[in-house]
Amino acid sequence: MRVRIAIQGELGSNSHMAALEMLAGTGAVEIAACALSAEVFERVAAGAVDGAVLPIENSLHGSVAEHYDLLLAQPVRIARESLLRVRHNLIARPGVKLADVRRAMSHPVALSQCRRWFVEHPEIEAVPFYDTAGSVKQVMASGASDVAGIAPELAARQYGGEVLVAGIEDHAENYTRFHYLVRESGWAAAAGANKASLAFIVLHRPGTLVQALEVFARAGVNLTKIESRPVPGMPWEYVFFVDLRFESSNQMDAALAGLGQHCEMVKELGRYVAA
């Protein structure tokens, strides 16, 4: 069985790694690399792929706001989640030595997570690039011996590069949480689900947010995350995204029923097994 999975970014990226780990044992995984996150969601919604693996939150950098917006706008659901330990590696063409490198390219977030290493190597300039794995792809295509990329080890294997220095990130406790997304029409709550993600907009009356949060407490579910995002096209209106842990599906059903009394919109984004 072959499973076709869309990711944002180049092959060899952390998303590529997360997809392989999350879908191990389901058959051959074919990765469809997309330039934009919106394209990933469109492919899932259209049924052009079986699903998608996208980052939703990094333990150091925070949430991926665009992906929350797209979760709300597109007919997709969260089927699984996973955690990936992020490691940034300096990767160059085979035969290149660290002493030869004068520039290191990568995504700005990756560069910001390797500041200490750049301080220790002032002779190497940090150069922003559109993608981590894409930086290695560019290094290999350019043939340059004074440039390296900063990316996952998978990128070195994908493009024939060589890891010069492994694990140059500032913090070892650097994790990214990924969601596996499927088309809404084919979604069902995962067996053994104990976590859910919701989006809701409260009614415009005093105390409605407090009342909405009290619904979760009465239902016996544990609120593990909450954040707000602006509603597109509605200035100063906000949608709340929450993650919840629960012990039984009845608890979640009760929470959803109670939430509807205080909200003008409620959308269940997924019900899955916590990573």
Key terms:
alpha/beta, D-Maltodextrin-Binding Protein, domain 2, Alpha-Beta Plaits, 3 domains, six-stranded mixed β-sheet, five-stranded mixed β-sheet, elongated
Tell me about this structure.
The chain folds into three domains: 2-85 and 174-185, Periplasmic binding protein-like II (D-Maltodextrin-Binding Protein, domain 2, 3-Layer(aba) Sandwich); 89-165, D-Maltodextrin-Binding Protein, domain 2 (3-Layer(aba) Sandwich), CATH 3.40.190; 195-272, ACT domain (Alpha-Beta Plaits), CATH 3.30.70.260. It has nine helices and 15 strands. The chain has helices spanning 14-22, 37-46, 65-73, 108-112, 115-120, 132-142, 153-159, 208-219, 249-259; strands at 2-8, 28-34, 51-58, 62-63, 76-85, 89-92, 103-106, 125-128, 147-151, 162-165, 175-183, 195-202, 222-231, 234-245, 263-272. Strands 1, 2, 3, 4, 5 and 11 form a six-stranded mixed β-sheet that branches. A five-stranded mixed β-sheet has the order 8-7-9-6-10. The chain has a four-stranded antiparallel β-sheet with strand order 13-14-12-15, with helices on both faces. The two termini are 25 Å apart.
